[in-house]
Amino acid sequence: MKNLLNLQKQLLPDLLRVMHKRYEILRHIQLMQPVGRRSLSGVLDFTERVLRAEVDFLRTQDLVAVDSSGMRLTESGADLLSEMEPMMKELFGLNQLERDLESCLNLKKVIIVPGDSDRSDWVKKEMGRACARFLRKIAEPDQVIAVSGGSTMLAVAEMMIPSSAFKSTMFVPARGGVGEAVELEANYIASLMAKKTKGHYRMMHVPDQVSDEAYQTLLREPHIQEVLESLKRAHIVIHGIGNAMTMAVRRKSSQAILDKLQREQAVGESFGYYFNRNGEIVYRVQSLGLKLDDLANAKNIIAVAGGSSKAEAIRAISTKVSRDILITDEGAAKAILSLE
């Protein structure tokens, strides 16, 4: 296939450009459906006239359906998009980028989606879809899946679909609440994943940060003990990666902590741990939830994070925390490799 693609690039470059344009239209319809033409043209930066002509062609091929609610993929369109994906990744260099990043970060597997989530929220949705699809491949009966909070984890939850293996899955929040929008909290995301997949979930109604006294008190609560034991049995851990200062501000950290993080040159955060560029822990939040030591029990640790602005954070944390799988975007991948 690689040789054929190289020949097509040389002999039929216009054909490949058209194919890529139609692939992007199908991909965004799948992410946004049902979607109106005006919204789609804005995301793709196409004129409505150009988009109308392309959609008309895709309709005649029975790949797209249009009704009063907007455009959506037909079953044939969804099947074709799935079949095209490996070829498009090879054609535009994403497969090689994945291999380069696996080697750079010493990870078992890297999955890269096109685009940069710093520039488009729809790229974050695509990372969510990639993670949800990967989870279906590795799902096992009676498993426990621990999940953290954040907007990228919400994107994963929204893309989950039922699978027979998920029916006996227990989704558990990996952390307490940061005190932000409820839909970004780990509790909500765990419950949404369970709802989408027909699985089960546990809740952990505690703050992300607690005092030493509160920490010791909460540890004695039977419900908290049960949730913490479930976390230690997690087969799969899915988590995001945050910029250190952004997460510290979201946690309403004191000025003394903010100064410490700046002084120690913290670049990334995950599970309440703050890391510097060398992957060294420079600060840890006192909180209830999954600890780094608990990750040794997990069969698969999956980090989902993107955006070129998170390159340093992803590099610092991936090799220390997410030793298994990284799902990211093209912008972050290229930025990480440029740091070398």
TrEMBL record:
One of the record's GO molecular function terms: carbohydrate binding
InterPro entries for this protein: CggR_N (IPR048715), NagB/RpiA_transferase-like (IPR037171), SorC_transcr_regulators (IPR051054), Sugar-bd_dom_put (IPR007324), WH-like_DNA-bd_sf (IPR036388), WH_DNA-bd_sf (IPR036390)
Limits of the CggR N-terminal DNA binding domain: 18-88
Keywords annotated in UniProt: DNA-binding, Transcription, Transcription regulation
UniProt domain Sugar-binding: residue ranges: 90-338
PANTHER family, per the entry: CENTRAL GLYCOLYTIC GENES REGULATOR, TRANSCRIPTIONAL REGULATOR-RELATED
Similarity comment: Belongs to the SorC transcriptional regulatory family.
Protein name as catalogued: Central glycolytic genes regulator
Originating organism: Thermoactinomyces intermedius
